[in-house]
Amino acid sequence: MAKIKFKGEGGIFSKIGKRNLLIFSAVLLIGGAVVLNYFLFDTGNKVDYDGSGMTDADPNEDEAPTTDTYFASALLSRDQARDEALAVLQTVLESEDALEETKTQALTDISRIALEIEKEANIESLIRARGFEDCIAVLSGDSASIIVKSDTELLQNHVAQISEIVYEQSGVLPANIKIICK
Question: Strand order in 143-149's β-sheet?
């Protein structure tokens, strides 16, 4: 059986190092979670802030069961992706080989994720309070995707209300907010 030689032994990891490999793996996993969230929540039914380009699903379709299932599975997927990212960051924190700088960055990332979770929950609650049956908010840096359940077309005042809520709760500018009607 071939033995992998680590740093100082002249093996494959001598130039890369365990620490750098661990950091690279964490960044790769977090990046994968972000891409997964993008593809799960990007349905193509976008509403621009000015209300143009609004499209909805076929109004003749009976979509109550699929819409409920969609929201439940989307929330589950979002939570699973976050849990995986947090697990990787926790591994970095617990690693004895990680530099203090890396551990500090992991703590910062954990704090950022926790803050995003809180902001998303606030946004979802406030949008539901405005009369929407269901809602999912996904914050990603300086952008946000909001998916709302609505039987009717979103009016301009709905778009403005949702954008205002997102801006007040997260600071994301209305130009960087995607509102999707499901």
Answer: 46-47, 177-181, 143-149, 134-140
DSSP state, 60?
T
- With residue 31 as reference, give the H or E element that holds it: helix 18-41
Are 153 and 147 in contact, with CB atoms under 8 Å apart? no
Taking alpha carbons only, the member of 29, 181, 134, 165 closest to residue 90 is: 29
Task: Say how far apart CA 84 and CA 113 lie, in whole Å.
Answer: 12
Q: What is the pLDDT of residues 51-72, one digit of tens each?
A: 443 444 444 444 445 677 888 8
**What pLDDT is attached to residue 55?**
43
**Rounded CA separation 111/14 (Å):** 33
Q: Is the pLDDT of residue 182 over 90?
A: no
What single-letter DSSP state applies at residue 61?
S
Contact call for residues 170 and 138 (beta carbons, < 8 A): no
Is 130:144 a contact under the CB 8 Å cutoff? no
Compute the radius of gyration of the chain from its Cα atoms: 21
